[in-house]
Amino acid sequence: LEENIESNAIYAQRHKETLFVNRTLQSFWLGYTQRCHHYAKKLLEMQLLGRHNKLVILFYAALNAFRGVKNTNGNGSQFAKVRNLYKDAINALRTAKELSPWNFSNKVF
Questions:
Q1: Mind listing the pLDDT tens digit for each residue in 17-43?
Q2: Ramachandran angles phi, psi of 20, nearest 5°
Q3: CA 20 to CA 39: how far, in whole Å?
Q4: What string of DSSP letters covers 34-53?
């Protein structure tokens, strides 16, 4: 019974991760900067987030933050505070570039 409960908890965590990754990417491509920031923040707070998903979300969160800074309708002030996110994303992607240059070198460039 305990194994079943643990496997269900892991399944629920993976399902939640998949949902948040999809919502983050969907919000980014539809231009919803605040919604994208919300889901990316939720994902990056997850403890069992997969490494590849973390790198992809860091990349899109940094791009989204740039979009938020450029935003001139009053929402940009919130995103001016995320300068550290740019640095964290670039540092994480530089490390990933060394491990998989064909996949991450263009994202660092």
A1: 889 999 999 999 998 988 998 999 898
A2: -70, -35
A3: 6
A4: HHHHHHHHHHHH-TT--HHH
Q: Which ranges of the chain would DSSP assign to H, the alpha helix?
A: 2-30, 33-45, 51-70, 76-79, 83-99, 101-108
Candidates 51, 43, 45; CA nearest to 21 is 43
**Spatial separation of the C-alpha atoms in residues 17 and 102, rounded to whole Å:** 25
66-102, pLDDT tens digit by residue? Answer: 776 655 555 555 555 566 666 677 777 777 777 666 6
In the numeric block, which tokens belong to residue 4?
């079943």
Q: Which amino acid is at 82?
A: V
Q: Counting every residue, how long is the chain?
A: 109
Contact 2, 35 (CB under 8 A): no
What are the tokens at 39?
Answer: 């889901």
